[in-house]
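Notes from the 1:1 (GR / supervisor)

We went over the backlog. Supervisor wanted to see one worked example end to end before approving the batch request, so GR pasted a single chain during the call. The sequence is below; no edits were made to it. Supervisor asked that the structure be written out right there so they could see what the output format looks like.
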Amino acid sequence: MQLTLSVTAFVSVLFVAELSPAECEADPVSCRLWTDPQLPGLSMNGDFIIGGIFAIHFYTRSEQNTYTRQPLQPQCSGSMDFRELRFARAMEFTIHEINNRTDLLPGITLGYQIYDSCSTVPMAVKVAFQFANGMEPFYNDTDSCSKSATAAVPALVGDSPSTPSISIARMLGLFGIPQVSHYATCACLSDKRQYPAFFRTIPSDHHQAAALARMVKHFGWTWIGAVRSDTDYGNYGMASFLKAAQEEGICVEYSESYYRTQPRSKLERVANVIRRSTARVIVAFVNSGDMRFLLEELARQPPPPLQWIGSETWITDPDFLKYNMCAGAIGFGVPRSVIPGLREFLLDLSPEQALKSPLLTEFWESSFSCSLKGSSGGARECDGSEDLRALQNPYTDTSQLRVTNMVYKATYAIAHAIHSVICNDTQCDKSATFTPWQILNQLKRVNFTTKNGFQVSFDSSGDPVAVYELINWQFKKDGGLDFVTVGRYDSSRPRGQEFSMSRAISWVGEQKEVPKSVCSESCPPGTRKAVQKGKPVCCYDCIPCAEGEISNKTDSLDCLRCPPEFWPNAQRVSCLPKPVEFLSWDDTLSIILTVFSVTGAFIAMSVAAVFYKHKTSPIVRANNSELSFLLLFSLTLCFLCSLTFIGRPSEWSCMLRHTAFGITFVLCISCVLGKTIVVLMAFRATLPGSNAMKWFGPPQQRLSVLAFTFIQALICVIWLKISPPFPLKNLKHYKERIILECGLGSAIGFWAVLGYIGFLALLCFILAFLARKLPDNFNEAKFITFSMLIFCAVWITFIPAYVSSPGKFTVAVEIFAILASSFGLVICIFAPKCFIIVFRPEQNTKKHLMGKVPSKAL
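Structure output shown during the call:
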């Protein structure tokens, strides 16, 4: 809106001022300005005149156009900004100081014309045209309306606000007239394609916005409010800040804008948004005039305590120190300085001098509430007792001199550029003529240090190096507020080192701890952030990490999955190695199984000892002692092979446990099968004409056992050769722990071993079942049948138990199956015989064994 207005004004003035040569020749008098020029508020003649423009008032008087007469020219109205008046007089002081120097522009007197832009575009544009064309009411009354190409001023200082400065820069840039602003910070002015003649001694808002965003992030604020002036300064500055804030992960609850000339309802709405907000930190990219209106509106119904973050325009303005609601405010301001002699110059003002300038007259009368002679007004007449030194206002306050120093530097920069154009090593030529773009060219090259020690130079964008002080509003001992420098920001330092703190900050409410302003509290380690639907990313819920995942830092966006061999701790903040599970030797279950295994082996060896001691007894001889001893030996191995399943699995143990188990059990079943066949053949041999025993004598018995066992051994060898068992870390059965087990390698090989054992056991069971009705005293068939029944039952139930058993219990089930089937064979086949040998020796006779008793069914 402001930009459009400036362009409109520019076109309007051009239309009014341009007259054709024919019109001038017909009536030379008509070759004149159609309106009265704006008179400077402060001026002094000199060899070269430097322009100055400052926003000393806030408004222009507006009247409704009737279109029946010439429109009235804009006039400033409203209260005077004494701080801006100090800026204007600082330019006066600087020019006087330069004129008194012998090393800079010797023999040359600089003059000045200083205007009030009223903080508005129309007045700024009108003044800009006067800087370009001069104030003569007539051009020349010769034969044409030609005019010298030389501008009225070679350069100017100002304006203070960004919006008027943009309008001025757009117009003066067309003519190459350099403009050095002391306070226009809009980042847009760094664009040399649009503003080729614009320079400034104050840093661009681009740097300030980035610094503010980093500061907000530094103090942990992620939920803030934002308010800005609806001007180029506020809109461009806030846009830069919001972009930088987004990159820093900062969320903005609201972003409101207003301008002091907008309806009051808009200001009230903005104030109500601030009052209702949940953000406890508010960033205000607002110029001084708009900020004053906002604070006055908020004072009517104060909001909850807010931590104000201010832009440099108002954060160092002493007029705002009266608003205690802003106590603890922080923001960036240009560095403070000392300008020797300035205070004396400002205070060296008499009523007679004040009457020479309408601005000084208004200042005097407003400060002392009296009327100077010759001025209008109904107030009392000033009597000469007024003392400027007794005043306490921004005009006399020289304790900071921040922006004032920017005026000082800008004026000196123009002087140095003029010196480079008209002076040589020895003297300066006051009669020299030059064009503004020559000054423009020299301004790009200036590099000097002011008398008070500040470096002045411009980069390719016409900007200085960005250096800020971090300002904090702190209470003094007398209860008033004051500016305190608590840190520094220097854009020339390496990335990440620009910001430094020098002293403690006093926060809102005089707190010593940093206030909190977040939409959601930080998510602790072990959780992740989940954005709430329809809300900014800073508003989120904290979701515990899923099973097997961790987050080891605060506010994690995602949880990290632990490596396969690790599992989260209870808090899910770190991955710990999964506990390794296997049937170890010191496990209680292992000890129990080991005891049973050793006991079984001991029983088998004890039975063998009893049989060996009574090897000549009828019961031992009648039960095929050779196969009995081989069976007891194989049972001993079966008991002992269960021990190979205990302990940490290794390559050798995995191969040994399965093959040893398979071969020993086949040896055992082969012996039982041999004994069963012997029983059948023995009784068949008693039939008339039968010669069965010659086909299954001791050599055939040994050969059958060897053959059956060899087949199992061959299966095991092929299994080990093709795909042997191997130690395996089972990560799938349990998520939270690792099971160390033996992988089968080839499942076919494993089930072939078990299947072959099962086949022999089933065959043995069938043959024993067929022989169950033979004479009892000499018949082992019923005991073998019962032992095979137990064997088959154990191994049939073993398969589902083996598959469903968890972890180390899988191995325990396998050991139990081996021990149970082995004990079944020992007890069923050998226990009755040992009982007769030890406790019923009278039955251990051939007569008893050959006796005929009724057969007993199973």
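Supervisor's comment: The radius of gyration is 53 Å.
Batch request approved.
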